[in-house]
Amino acid sequence: MTSQDLMDKLSDDTIARNEFYKEFSKVGETKNKLKCIELLMKHYNCGFDEAREVMDFILDGKPLPNPDLTPQQIAQANAQAQELLNKPKCPTCGSTNIKKMGGIERGASIAAFGLFSKKINKTFKCSNCGYTW
Description:
There is one protein chain. The protein has 133 residues and is mainly α. It has helices spanning 3-16, 19-29, 33-44, 48-60, 71-86, 103-113, and strands at residues 98-100, 124-126. The chain has a two-stranded antiparallel ribbon with strand order 1-2. Helix 3 (33-44) crosses helix 4. The longest helix has 16 residues, at 71-86.
């Protein structure tokens, strides 16, 4: 049994609100991970590692392992996530669809409006909402 199979069975019991769910919930409220693991192993006849992975997910928010992903796929997904986190975002709408304002665009605005130009000291412009910062 995989940790995902165990999680599916636990979800079914949670929906059914059966006796095991009630007992598991009481122990879960105490955050006693070892006791919860023992309950899972006894009720579902699963291994320690699978029960621990499910409890790590429930109590600590750790994702369940996905055996279908290769280490290369995991590394690629992590790299994509890190790239997205490092990408600048619009402070107004959160979009990453932004562009750096060129000197000509800023210069033309300053020439036309002088000190009243809204583009003085601005570097980026959001292509979604038009906000400049």
